[in-house]
Amino acid sequence: MEEARESLYEEMGCFDPNTPAEVTVESSFSQAEPPPPPPQVLVAGSTSNSNCSVEVEELSEFHLSPQDCPQASSTPLQFHINPPPPPPPPCDQLHNNLIHQMASHQQQHSNWDNGYQDFVNLGPNSATTPDLLSLLHLPRCSLPPNHHPSSMLPNSFSDIMSSSSAAAVMYDPLFHLNFPMQPRDQNQLRNGSCLLGVEDQIQMDANGGMNVLYFEGANNNNGGFENEILEFNNGVTRKGRGSRKSRTSPTERERRVHFNDRFFDLKNLIPNPTKIDRASIVGEAIDYIKELLRTIEEFKMLVEKKRCGRFRSKKRARVGEGGGGEDQEEEEDTVNYKPQSEVDQSCFNKNNNNSLRCSWLKRKSKVTEVDVRIIDDEVTIKLVQKKKINCLLFTTKVLDQLQLDLHHVAGGQIGEHYSFLFNTKICEGSCVYASGIADTLMEVVEKQYMEAVPSNGY
Amino acid sequence: MGGGSRFQEPVRMSRRKQVTKKKEDDENFKSPNLEAERRRREKLHCRLMALRSHVPIVTNMTKASIVEDAITYIGELQNNVKNLLETFHEMEEAPPEIDEEQTDPMIKPEVETSDLNEEMKKIGIEENVQLCKIGERKFWLKIITEKKDGIFTKFMEVMRFLGFEIIDISLTTSNGTILISASVQTQELCDVEQTKDFLLEVMRSSP
Fold first, then answer.
1. Which residues of chain A lie closer than 8 angstroms to B138, CB-CB?
2. Rounded CA separation A22/A107 (Å)
3. Which residue of B has its CA nearest to A393?
4. Region annotation Disordered: residue ranges (chain B) (predicted)?
């Protein structure tokens, strides 16, 4: 009997033999409040039942060892005294039934549904608990009537669950959560959540310590902003955990707030941020930095080219004065004209080396996306816009304005969007740059979109 | 257990003492989606490291300073860009003498187009408009015409005028000619022949 009971208790800890992992989840629900009120020992019924008493002791052993629960010892008595209104006999029966239930737990899994239904139909205050308890994967609590001739378990259990006179005060892992419940309902709850506790205690120790440290470390090392998230989760998933805030000092909180403001500032710097969560902001910041670097390179090259072009034309002018309309560009004629500065010299070299100008950037908005890539004098523009206006028409106008020579266009309607790709060439002498193209196009197309009448723009 | 938090370990150790008192509070303080939370933190952490690797300014090694340094750096880069842009624009408004010189290259394109026209006639590409009905109000349209400045804009204007909605379109150029093939949809009924002639006339006309 003892061995059986021990094995029972082991199995009690994880009701569903198929998912032992959930025990940890369950145990997480088990304790929350800072001064953990001692888990109330499962004492169903009275000491008159020898079975009950033995189990009570065993249970209390389990409870007391991992924790300091000075009050634990008092609770058994308390429980005995506690239920005057509900009649004791059902408790005994209940307890017995539960033991039997444990003994045959393997077949419980498939048969819990009825009991669960009843459980769900508990009073108004049970609205919160079934969710959590279903998370805990509590065994539904009814067996088929034929299953155990000796136990009236299924019916009795469900009866007790649905009855308001349930007496048994059992270990309630959720006790600490301080659900605002009537005592009666609480009893019912405990009925449903019975016998969860023992293994949980041990599990808690095994995992909880680590978790605590983990979270602590997380809190401290991440500049404290993780605290926020944890607190938020706390508030949402568990009631009555508000004490966590008092642990963070005001300076910690200030730091967190300051840190959050930084993210906000970063977001404001980025031209078109789409998401507001931190990871996305950082990701977009990285892309933006790269884009800025590319733009700077492009401008530097453009400026150099301009300077060289000017230099060359200066040179041509001078030579033109001197001689005929000779095309001096190809001649590296330094005889008549020496480069006066290193910059000019490097211009020469650069142009001789045919350094390619290349740049790429993107502009995005809620309805439009513009992608501009420039290699040397070819510009590839990609435009995607939500279908509403004749954006192609406006785009061609912009391209004409920018003196971009169309070489190839392809695109059309794709689902709810228009998508077009333009291969163009920069006219010689024109000095457009990537961001200029992108910004102009974006501006025009966006404006037209916003101004368009909701009906078809055609 | 703390596999994803290797960066946090040193701090965790030092805080152990303070932790034990409140150990019981948080013993089973597990987020219901622990793995997801961990992954989220990891993701943010990785991205912050990547950000730091792009930013040459490093004042501190804290996460807050990564973000702050990034803000400063982006500000700097934006200033750079602004300055370069100004320089560029100043160079745009170059002294007029040089502009005259620079108009030489501008003359070239015009010369080129007239050459291309000749080429087009040489190769024997002829202007052509085809309109083919493929559905109730759907058409396939094919236009071959001489490539001129703003020809595509003109085409789009005509489409709008006719009430043709473009479903998809493809445009290619070769030797001074342009080929447009598109599938279009219209709300109103239209006569194929008339439209064809109209289009041909419009595309031929000079802007």
1. none
2. 19
3. B156
4. 1-38
3-state secondary structure of B142: strand
For tokens 């016998």, the residue is: A195
User: Is the distance from CB of B165 to CB of A458 less than 8 angstroms?
Assistant: yes
- A215 and B94: CB-CB below 8 Å? no
B45 confidence band (pLDDT: 50, 70, 90):
very high
- Residue A303 sits at the chain B interface (C-beta within 8 Å): yes
**What pTM does this model have?**
0.50
Instruction: Provide the token pair at B68.
Output: 């702050």
Among candidates A25, A223, A286 on the partner chain, residue whose Cβ is nearest the Cβ of B51: A286
Average pLDDT in the B27-42 region?
Answer: 80
Distance CA B111, CA B148 (A): 12
Would you list the domain boundaries of chain A? 252-313, 358-452
Beta strands A368-375; A404-414: pairing state: unpaired
pLDDT in tens, B78-124: 998 888 888 888 877 765 444 444 444 444 444 455 555 666 666 77
State both tokens at B198.
Answer: 């109209």
The closest CB to that of A409, out of B8, B9, B169, belongs to B169
* CATH number of this structure's domain A252-313: 4.10.280
Determine how β-strand A417-426 pairs with β-strand B138-146: unpaired
DSSP one-letter code for A247: G
Q: Rounded to whole angstroms, how far apart are CA atoms B130 and A428?
A: 34
Q: Which of B28, B85, B159 is facing A31, going by the closest CB pair? A: B28
Interface-testing mutation among A134, A215, A257, with chain B (most B C-beta atoms within 10 A)? A215
Residue B22 and residue A262: Cβ atoms within 8 Å?
no
- Cα gap B49→A454, rounded to integer Å: 45
